User: Fold this.
Amino acid sequence: MGLLSLSGCNAVRLGYNNAPDLAYWWLDSYFDFDGPQSTRLRNDLHTLQDWHRKDELPELATTLKNLQAAAPQEVTAAQVCQLSLYVEERIQTTLDRAAPTAVALGPTLSTAQLEHLARALDKRNREWREEWMDGSPEERQERRLKKLVERAEGFYGRLTEVQRKQLQGQLEASAFDASVQYREVLRRQQDTLQTLRALRNGNATEIHTQAEVRALVARSLQSPDPAFRQYTERVRSQACEAIAAFHNRTSASQRQRLQDTLKGYEGDVRALMRP
Assistant:
Protein backbone atom coordinates (compact mmCIF):
# COMPACT_ATOMS: atom_id res chain seq x y z
CA MET A 1 0.00 0.00 0.00
CA GLY A 2 1.70 3.18 -1.18
CA LEU A 3 -0.03 5.43 1.32
CA LEU A 4 1.20 3.30 4.20
CA SER A 5 4.82 4.02 3.33
CA LEU A 6 4.60 7.62 4.56
CA SER A 7 6.36 8.16 7.85
CA GLY A 8 6.80 11.43 9.69
CA CYS A 9 5.56 14.83 8.61
CA ASN A 10 8.96 16.54 8.42
CA ALA A 11 10.40 13.55 6.57
CA VAL A 12 7.58 13.74 4.02
CA ARG A 13 8.18 17.44 3.27
CA LEU A 14 11.95 17.12 3.19
CA GLY A 15 11.86 13.98 1.09
CA TYR A 16 9.41 15.40 -1.44
CA ASN A 17 11.20 18.72 -1.85
CA ASN A 18 14.47 16.87 -2.45
CA ALA A 19 12.90 14.09 -4.54
CA PRO A 20 14.58 15.03 -7.87
CA ASP A 21 18.06 14.93 -6.31
CA LEU A 22 17.32 11.78 -4.30
CA ALA A 23 15.89 10.04 -7.37
CA TYR A 24 18.89 11.09 -9.45
CA TRP A 25 21.44 9.71 -6.99
CA TRP A 26 19.45 6.50 -6.61
CA LEU A 27 19.29 5.96 -10.37
CA ASP A 28 22.92 6.98 -10.84
CA SER A 29 23.97 4.28 -8.37
CA TYR A 30 22.56 1.76 -10.87
CA PHE A 31 23.62 3.33 -14.19
CA ASP A 32 26.63 5.60 -13.51
CA PHE A 33 25.42 8.28 -15.94
CA ASP A 34 27.79 10.42 -17.99
CA GLY A 35 27.61 14.22 -18.24
CA PRO A 36 24.94 14.67 -20.96
CA GLN A 37 22.83 11.85 -19.51
CA SER A 38 23.01 13.40 -16.05
CA THR A 39 21.96 16.80 -17.35
CA ARG A 40 18.97 15.36 -19.20
CA LEU A 41 17.89 13.23 -16.25
CA ARG A 42 18.20 16.01 -13.68
CA ASN A 43 16.18 18.41 -15.82
CA ASP A 44 13.51 15.81 -16.52
CA LEU A 45 13.19 14.88 -12.85
CA HIS A 46 12.57 18.49 -11.90
CA THR A 47 9.99 18.78 -14.69
CA LEU A 48 8.33 15.58 -13.47
CA GLN A 49 8.15 16.96 -9.95
CA ASP A 50 6.59 20.21 -11.18
CA TRP A 51 3.88 18.20 -12.94
CA HIS A 52 3.37 15.93 -9.92
CA ARG A 53 3.10 18.90 -7.57
CA LYS A 54 0.49 20.56 -9.78
CA ASP A 55 -1.59 17.58 -10.94
CA GLU A 56 -1.09 14.73 -8.47
CA LEU A 57 -0.75 16.35 -5.05
CA PRO A 58 -4.26 17.87 -5.11
CA GLU A 59 -5.70 14.40 -5.72
CA LEU A 60 -3.57 12.98 -2.91
CA ALA A 61 -4.77 15.70 -0.54
CA THR A 62 -8.40 14.89 -1.38
CA THR A 63 -7.76 11.18 -0.83
CA LEU A 64 -6.19 11.84 2.57
CA LYS A 65 -9.15 14.02 3.55
CA ASN A 66 -11.59 11.27 2.56
CA LEU A 67 -9.58 8.72 4.54
CA GLN A 68 -9.84 10.91 7.62
CA ALA A 69 -13.62 10.81 7.35
CA ALA A 70 -13.52 7.01 7.04
CA ALA A 71 -10.98 6.45 9.84
CA PRO A 72 -13.50 6.30 12.74
CA GLN A 73 -15.69 3.85 10.83
CA GLU A 74 -15.34 0.15 10.16
CA VAL A 75 -14.06 -0.73 6.71
CA THR A 76 -14.42 -3.65 4.33
CA ALA A 77 -11.73 -5.57 2.49
CA ALA A 78 -13.21 -4.27 -0.77
CA GLN A 79 -12.66 -0.67 0.35
CA VAL A 80 -9.05 -1.41 1.26
CA CYS A 81 -8.41 -3.07 -2.10
CA GLN A 82 -10.04 -0.15 -3.88
CA LEU A 83 -7.57 2.19 -2.20
CA SER A 84 -4.67 -0.09 -3.11
CA LEU A 85 -5.71 -0.15 -6.77
CA TYR A 86 -6.12 3.62 -6.77
CA VAL A 87 -2.55 4.05 -5.49
CA GLU A 88 -1.29 1.71 -8.22
CA GLU A 89 -3.12 3.79 -10.82
CA ARG A 90 -1.40 6.95 -9.59
CA ILE A 91 1.98 5.20 -9.75
CA GLN A 92 1.21 4.06 -13.30
CA THR A 93 0.32 7.63 -14.28
CA THR A 94 3.61 8.93 -12.89
CA LEU A 95 5.62 6.23 -14.68
CA ASP A 96 3.84 7.02 -17.95
CA ARG A 97 4.80 10.66 -17.46
CA ALA A 98 8.44 9.64 -16.96
CA ALA A 99 8.53 7.35 -20.00
CA PRO A 100 9.98 9.95 -22.43
CA THR A 101 13.08 10.19 -20.24
CA ALA A 102 13.62 6.45 -20.41
CA VAL A 103 13.02 6.55 -24.18
CA ALA A 104 15.68 9.24 -24.56
CA LEU A 105 18.29 7.72 -22.26
CA GLY A 106 17.80 4.00 -22.92
CA PRO A 107 19.53 3.84 -26.33
CA THR A 108 22.44 6.00 -25.06
CA LEU A 109 23.51 3.57 -22.34
CA SER A 110 26.92 2.05 -22.99
CA THR A 111 27.98 -1.55 -22.54
CA ALA A 112 29.94 -0.50 -19.46
CA GLN A 113 26.87 1.17 -17.99
CA LEU A 114 24.74 -1.93 -18.55
CA GLU A 115 27.43 -4.05 -16.89
CA HIS A 116 27.40 -1.57 -13.99
CA LEU A 117 23.62 -2.01 -13.79
CA ALA A 118 23.96 -5.80 -13.72
CA ARG A 119 26.46 -5.61 -10.84
CA ALA A 120 24.23 -3.17 -8.93
CA LEU A 121 21.28 -5.51 -9.35
CA ASP A 122 23.34 -8.44 -8.07
CA LYS A 123 24.17 -6.43 -4.95
CA ARG A 124 20.52 -5.55 -4.49
CA ASN A 125 19.60 -9.22 -4.85
CA ARG A 126 22.01 -10.21 -2.08
CA GLU A 127 20.44 -7.61 0.21
CA TRP A 128 16.94 -8.79 -0.74
CA ARG A 129 17.80 -12.40 0.06
CA GLU A 130 19.28 -11.36 3.42
CA GLU A 131 16.08 -9.53 4.33
CA TRP A 132 13.48 -11.96 3.04
CA MET A 133 15.07 -15.40 2.64
CA ASP A 134 17.95 -15.83 5.08
CA GLY A 135 17.51 -17.51 8.45
CA SER A 136 14.97 -20.00 9.72
CA PRO A 137 11.24 -19.66 8.95
CA GLU A 138 10.76 -18.38 12.50
CA GLU A 139 13.47 -15.72 12.09
CA ARG A 140 12.03 -14.56 8.78
CA GLN A 141 8.57 -14.37 10.29
CA GLU A 142 9.88 -12.37 13.24
CA ARG A 143 11.50 -9.82 10.91
CA ARG A 144 8.27 -9.41 8.98
CA LEU A 145 6.25 -9.05 12.17
CA LYS A 146 8.59 -6.40 13.55
CA LYS A 147 8.22 -4.28 10.42
CA LEU A 148 4.46 -4.73 10.34
CA VAL A 149 4.10 -3.69 13.98
CA GLU A 150 6.26 -0.62 13.43
CA ARG A 151 4.19 0.39 10.42
CA ALA A 152 0.89 -0.09 12.24
CA GLU A 153 2.07 1.81 15.30
CA GLY A 154 3.11 4.71 13.06
CA PHE A 155 -0.58 5.19 12.29
CA TYR A 156 -2.49 3.81 15.27
CA GLY A 157 -0.08 4.33 18.14
CA ARG A 158 0.96 1.67 20.62
CA LEU A 159 -0.49 -1.77 19.88
CA THR A 160 -1.78 -4.14 22.51
CA GLU A 161 -0.44 -7.64 22.92
CA VAL A 162 -3.72 -8.96 21.50
CA GLN A 163 -3.25 -6.84 18.39
CA ARG A 164 0.32 -8.04 17.98
CA LYS A 165 -0.95 -11.60 18.18
CA GLN A 166 -3.57 -10.75 15.57
CA LEU A 167 -0.89 -9.47 13.19
CA GLN A 168 1.23 -12.55 13.86
CA GLY A 169 -1.70 -14.82 13.03
CA GLN A 170 -2.36 -12.92 9.82
CA LEU A 171 1.28 -13.31 8.77
CA GLU A 172 1.20 -17.04 9.49
CA ALA A 173 -1.91 -17.41 7.33
CA SER A 174 -0.55 -15.27 4.49
CA ALA A 175 0.10 -16.78 1.06
CA PHE A 176 3.24 -14.63 0.72
CA ASP A 177 6.17 -16.72 -0.51
CA ALA A 178 9.58 -15.02 -0.67
CA SER A 179 10.91 -17.56 -3.18
CA VAL A 180 8.04 -16.81 -5.57
CA GLN A 181 8.62 -13.08 -5.18
CA TYR A 182 12.34 -13.52 -5.77
CA ARG A 183 11.82 -15.39 -9.04
CA GLU A 184 9.70 -12.50 -10.25
CA VAL A 185 12.37 -10.01 -9.15
CA LEU A 186 14.93 -11.89 -11.26
CA ARG A 187 12.55 -12.04 -14.23
CA ARG A 188 12.02 -8.28 -14.16
CA GLN A 189 15.73 -7.61 -13.92
CA GLN A 190 16.58 -9.85 -16.85
CA ASP A 191 13.73 -8.34 -18.83
CA THR A 192 15.10 -4.86 -18.14
CA LEU A 193 18.66 -5.77 -19.11
CA GLN A 194 17.58 -7.56 -22.30
CA THR A 195 15.35 -4.67 -23.36
CA LEU A 196 18.05 -2.05 -22.76
CA ARG A 197 20.65 -4.11 -24.61
CA ALA A 198 18.29 -4.49 -27.57
CA LEU A 199 17.71 -0.73 -27.71
CA ARG A 200 21.44 -0.12 -28.13
CA ASN A 201 21.61 -1.47 -31.68
CA GLY A 202 21.05 2.06 -33.02
CA ASN A 203 18.48 0.98 -35.60
CA ALA A 204 15.34 1.43 -33.50
CA THR A 205 13.07 4.33 -34.31
CA GLU A 206 11.80 6.60 -31.56
CA ILE A 207 8.33 5.09 -31.94
CA HIS A 208 9.74 1.57 -31.58
CA THR A 209 11.84 2.61 -28.58
CA GLN A 210 8.85 4.22 -26.94
CA ALA A 211 6.76 1.11 -27.47
CA GLU A 212 9.49 -1.13 -26.01
CA VAL A 213 9.93 1.07 -22.93
CA ARG A 214 6.21 1.25 -22.26
CA ALA A 215 5.88 -2.51 -22.71
CA LEU A 216 8.75 -3.04 -20.25
CA VAL A 217 7.04 -0.82 -17.65
CA ALA A 218 3.77 -2.70 -18.18
CA ARG A 219 5.51 -6.07 -17.69
CA SER A 220 7.13 -4.73 -14.53
CA LEU A 221 3.83 -3.60 -13.06
CA GLN A 222 1.93 -6.70 -14.16
CA SER A 223 3.86 -9.89 -14.73
CA PRO A 224 3.28 -11.77 -18.00
CA ASP A 225 3.35 -14.97 -15.92
CA PRO A 226 -0.29 -15.97 -15.26
CA ALA A 227 0.71 -18.08 -12.25
CA PHE A 228 2.42 -15.11 -10.62
CA ARG A 229 -0.56 -12.87 -11.37
CA GLN A 230 -2.85 -15.37 -9.62
CA TYR A 231 -0.44 -15.51 -6.70
CA THR A 232 -0.35 -11.69 -6.50
CA GLU A 233 -4.12 -11.43 -6.47
CA ARG A 234 -4.32 -14.03 -3.71
CA VAL A 235 -1.78 -12.14 -1.60
CA ARG A 236 -3.53 -8.83 -2.27
CA SER A 237 -6.92 -10.22 -1.33
CA GLN A 238 -5.56 -11.63 1.92
CA ALA A 239 -3.80 -8.35 2.72
CA CYS A 240 -6.98 -6.34 2.17
CA GLU A 241 -8.91 -8.67 4.45
CA ALA A 242 -6.16 -8.53 7.07
CA ILE A 243 -5.97 -4.72 7.06
CA ALA A 244 -9.74 -4.39 7.33
CA ALA A 245 -9.92 -6.94 10.13
CA PHE A 246 -7.13 -5.22 12.04
CA HIS A 247 -8.65 -1.75 11.67
CA ASN A 248 -12.07 -2.96 12.74
CA ARG A 249 -10.63 -4.25 16.02
CA THR A 250 -8.81 -1.02 16.91
CA SER A 251 -10.02 1.18 19.76
CA ALA A 252 -11.64 4.61 19.45
CA SER A 253 -8.43 6.28 20.63
CA GLN A 254 -6.37 4.38 18.05
CA ARG A 255 -8.73 5.44 15.29
CA GLN A 256 -8.47 9.01 16.51
CA ARG A 257 -4.70 8.69 16.31
CA LEU A 258 -5.06 7.40 12.74
CA GLN A 259 -7.34 10.32 11.87
CA ASP A 260 -4.88 12.82 13.35
CA THR A 261 -1.98 11.25 11.49
CA LEU A 262 -3.82 11.41 8.18
CA LYS A 263 -4.75 15.02 8.88
CA GLY A 264 -1.08 15.81 9.43
CA TYR A 265 -0.18 14.22 6.10
CA GLU A 266 -2.92 16.16 4.37
CA GLY A 267 -1.47 19.36 5.79
CA ASP A 268 1.95 18.38 4.51
CA VAL A 269 0.61 17.64 1.03
CA ARG A 270 -1.27 20.94 0.85
CA ALA A 271 1.89 22.78 1.94
CA LEU A 272 3.89 20.94 -0.72
CA MET A 273 1.38 21.98 -3.39
CA ARG A 274 2.93 25.45 -3.12
CA PRO A 275 6.29 25.50 -4.96
Observations:
- Residues 176 and 235 are 6 Å apart (CA to CA).
- The chain has one domain: 2-272.
- DSSP finds eleven helices and no strands in the chain.
- Residues 2-272 form one domain.
